[in-house]
Design goal:
The protein has 177 residues and is mainly α. It has eight helices and no strands. Helix 2 runs antiparallel to helix 3 and helix 3 packs antiparallel against helix 4. The longest helix has 25 residues.
């Protein structure tokens, strides 16, 4: 019996792996809420939860700038805007839209097919190991900040303008006629 236990050697997961598994499970559950909940408001809340979980994965990968950007832009702006648009659009709040989707079977089949194709790609690809050290975190963030106000100023401002137009559209939908 002890020989069998010795042949089945395994290592316990580290704390970082356990946190990743918890975050991945949270993201999957929230994504399922986005896709399967019949209430549009619950879908929007699930989307905000998915964005928060992805920000947690970024923080776990030590990509602090991406984590903070994810929270500020997606959770703070996009998800909030979507939730306000849902709440302010009266027709959707009173259940005029259909809660069921006639294409559930097709989507389930396509999702399983995509899952197996991606799994095959992941298992049959030789992933190279990178040995170069990452730059210092403060240098990276300073460099990204510099790029935002020089090279990528126009796309950054256009994104802000797009958010402003989306907010104005939500206000136009919400006003009484």
């Amino acid at each position: 019996m002890s020989e069998l236990l010795q042949s089945l050697s395994f290592t316990l997961p580290t704390l970082q792996q356990l946190v990743f598994l918890a975050l991945a499970g949270f993201v999957v559950i929230m994504a399922l809420i986005v896709a399967l909940a019949p209430n549009l408001f619950h879908n929007a809340l699930g989307l905000a939860g998915t964005f928060l979980g992805v920000a947690g994965v970024y923080a776990l990968l030590e990509a602090e700038f991406l984590a903070v950007s994810q929270v500020l832009i997606y959770v703070g702006a996009i998800a909030t805007l979507i939730i306000f648009a849902v709440m302010l659009t009266r027709g959707m709040m009173f259940g005029i839209t259909s809660p069921s989707n006639a294409q559930r079977l097709t989507v389930a089949i396509m999702s399983l097919l995509l899952f197996f194709v991606l799994g095959g790609i992941l298992t049959h690809t030789g992933w190279p190991e990178v040995g170069a050290a990452l730059p210092d975190g403060e240098t990276l963030i300073a460099m990204l900040g510099q790029l935002f106000v020089t090279t990528y100023l126009v796309p950054f401002e256009l994104t802000a303008l797009l958010l402003l137009v989306a907010l104005a559209g939500a206000l136009m939908l919400a006003r009484d006629r």
